[in-house]
């Protein structure tokens, strides 16, 4: 690696301001700091020295997302082979077919979004924002495997440009860019991102396996008839708590299985990168709201109200959203108490949107985006509460 570093140092003057390739310095700097820790330090004291810079921080999140990506590739291939009645398909066949489906989506996200990042960096003459290392992978994992590639390009363009760059780039965005991109596609191109037909790629409709169904557990639960049992409806559709936790079913690429998400959560918590307070607060909010709706359930109301909280955890994208989306350090609450409140409200809103609003049987995306907007207000009230508490303490101290 010293040889590579010496080559980079040799060509650095060409890319620095005033050099022949000075306008391309953001590209040079991105490659240099991706491979090596930046050499720049502050000119005056105090100094805080750490080998983990922002790029390493973001790469840790990418590493935590790797299990979700690998599982998503396998599951997309397995769903394809089952739906298209591919005979003799095994593990490696599932993985290979899934790679052909999923990797182009990831590549388009990184290439198109990366071009926008480079363009804004060159025009503004600043370093390339590191946050796209995560956004470029998060966004594809929230999409169905059937999404057209041109829509992937359109969505990531909206998320990067409108969701982040117009606010000033990484660190200034109000909303999570990956969720902003998905929300744009959700409302602009709903047929390609919602409904039973989007969850499994079908090569030839005439060869679809008999009995194959593309309905998701949330769609089945939301459609359970009044007076019936939501658990019975799920079981009759082939969904059990165990099968939903494992996640070998239709859904967005990286969101169907609890196991890889929990692995990622452990990585983020142990490394200190992920905000465990937001994750815990989200879980408490989900459990509390689910128990409240369970108490309101009755024979004349939707059976969805009676669904136990642990089914909500296993269904849909709650786990993925609360671990990887809600914990975005830029758009989430920053104070410790604010993180608990922020996470709790996300979890509670997810249940309310899922169960009460029949138009949106998922709710994770909308809940997180809504709380992204509310996060500064949450932090404001937390800080004001601390100030008032300190004023009361100082007042009692003076009187004494």
What is the string of SSEs from the N terminus onward? HHHHHHHHHHHHHHHH
- By DSSP, the count of extended strands is 0
Please bin the fraction of helical residues: 55-70%
Name the shape in a single word. Answer: globular
What structural class should be given to the helix and strand makeup?
mainly alpha
**End-to-end CA span:** 65 Å
Major sheet description? none
How big is the Rg? Answer: 23 Å
Beta-strand portion reads under 5%
State mean pLDDT (0 to 100 scale): 85
Unreliably modeled segments? none
DSSP summary: helix tally: 16
**Number of separate domains:** 2
Give the SSE map.
Elements: H1 2-15, H2 25-35, H3 54-83, H4 91-124, H5 132-141, H6 149-161, H7 177-188, H8 217-222, H9 230-236, H10 241-246, H11 258-270, H12 276-296, H13 309-314, H14 318-325, H15 336-356, H16 364-399
Structure notes:
- The protein is mainly α and 400 residues long.
- It has two domains: 54-198; 224-387, no CATH class.
- The chain has helices at residues 2-15, 25-35, 54-83, 91-124, 132-141, 149-161, 177-188, 217-222, 230-236, 241-246, 258-270, 276-296, 309-314, 318-325, 336-356, 364-399.
- The mean pLDDT is 85.
Question: What are the key terms here?
Answer:
about 400 residues, mainly alpha, 2 domains
Task: Summarize, please.
The protein is mainly α and 400 residues long. The chain has 2 domains: 54-198; 224-387, no CATH class. It is 62% helix and 0% strand.
């Amino acid at each position: 690696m010293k040889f590579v570093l010496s080559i980079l140092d040799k060509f650095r003057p060409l890319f620095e301001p005033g050099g022949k390739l000075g306008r391309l310095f953001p590209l040079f700097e991105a490659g240099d700091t991706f491979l090596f820790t930046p050499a720049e330090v502050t000119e005056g004291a105090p100094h805080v020295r750490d080998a983990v810079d922002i790029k390493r921080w973001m790469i840790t999140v990418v590493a935590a997302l790797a299990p979700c990506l690998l599982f998503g590739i396998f599951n997309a291939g397995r769903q394809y082979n089952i739906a298209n009645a591919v005979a003799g398909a095994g593990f490696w066949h599932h993985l290979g077919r899934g790679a052909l489906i999923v990797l182009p989506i990831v590549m388009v996200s990184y290439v198109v979004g990366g071009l926008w990042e480079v363009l804004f960096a060159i025009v503004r003459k600043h370093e390339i924002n590191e946050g796209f290392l995560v956004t470029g992978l998060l966004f594809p994992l929230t999409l169905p495997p059937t999404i057209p590639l041109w829509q992937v390009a359109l969505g990531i363009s909206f998320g990067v440009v409108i969701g982040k760059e117009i606010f000033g780039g990484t660190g200034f965005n109000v909303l999570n860019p990956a969720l902003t991109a998905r929300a744009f596609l959700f409302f602009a191109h709903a047929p390609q991102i919602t409904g039973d037909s989007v969850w499994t790629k079908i090569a030839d409709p005439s060869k679809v396996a008999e009995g194959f169904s593309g309905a998701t557990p949330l769609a089945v639960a939301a459609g359970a008839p009044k007076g019936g049992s939501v658990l019975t409806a799920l079981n009759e559709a082939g969904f059990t708590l165990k099968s939903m936790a494992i996640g070998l079913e239709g859904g967005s690429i990286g969101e169907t299985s609890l196991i890889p998400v929990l692995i990622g959560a452990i990585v983020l918590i142990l490394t200190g990168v992920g905000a465990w307070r937001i994750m815990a607060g989200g879980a408490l909010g989900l459990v509390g709201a689910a128990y409240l709706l369970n108490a309101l359930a009755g024979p004349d109301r939707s059976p969805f109200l009676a669904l136990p909280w642990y089914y909500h955890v296993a269904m849909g994208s709650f786990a993925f959203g609360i671990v990887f989306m809600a914990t975005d350090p830029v758009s989430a609450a920053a104070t410790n108490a604010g993180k608990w409140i922020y996470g709790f409200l996300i979890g509670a809103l997810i249940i309310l949107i899922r169960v009460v609003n029949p138009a949106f049987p998922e709710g994770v995306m909308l809940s997180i985006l809504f709380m992204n907007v509310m996060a500064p207000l949450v932090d404001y009230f937390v800080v004001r509460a601390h100030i008032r508490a300190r004023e009361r303490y100082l007042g009692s101290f003076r009187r004494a």
